[in-house]
Specification:
- 14% of the residues lie in helices and 36% in strands.
- A hairpin with a 5-residue loop joins strand 3 and strand 4.
- The longest helix has 9 residues.
- The radius of gyration is 21 Å and the shape is elongated.
- The chain starts with 20 loop residues before the first helix and ends with a strand.
- The relative contact order is 0.17.
Length: 152
């Protein structure tokens, strides 16, 4: 028989503050049904986001946070991707590529307005690009340098 002080650890996750039916269902898919299960469910990796003033080929393959100003967009015919060309603080050009929903991308990245862009920097030929970046208003600041992501 366990001591009464340990009983809250074996309570259902719904008993925790902030865990409602929807969250409990998602946690159950991961096999996390009790509070103690959450204590032993550790992150498996991190995402390192590098805040930079300007992009360069030395940052290729890393997730960057950079303020960009879109200056041109090119929509291809048919199923071709939408490409938005943007410049950083040093005048380097970065191509922001979107394969689906070009209307959303045009609305999020109006020409001439600075935006904070987060995404993996890749090189396509001599061109630097970010495919499907996350777009934030320029006043937004990432809350931390590293974010843990857990998978079951």
């Amino acid at each position: 028989m366990r001591p009464d002080v340990l009983n809250p650890l074996f309570a259902e996750v719904e008993a925790l503050n902030g865990v409602g039916p929807a969250n409990a269902k998602a946690l159950a898919r991961l096999g996390l049904t009790r509070a103690i299960d959450l204590a032993y469910h550790l992150p498996t990796g991190t995402i390192d986001r590098v805040r930079t003033r300007s992009v360069s080929h030395s940052l290729v393959g890393r997730t960057v946070v950079v303020e960009l100003i879109p200056f041109d967009l090119r929509a291809g015919a048919g199923r071709a991707p939408l490409r938005i060309y943007a410049s950083d603080a040093d005048g380097n050009t970065v191509t922001l590529t979107f394969f689906n929903n070009p209307g959303w991308a045009k609305k999020q990245l109006p020409l001439g307005e600075p935006k904070l862009v987060v995404g993996k920097l890749d090189a396509w030929g001599d061109e630097l690009q970010i495919v499907h970046p996350e777009v934030l208003p320029p006043a937004a600041r990432p809350t931390c340098r590293c974010v843990s992501r857990s998978t079951a």
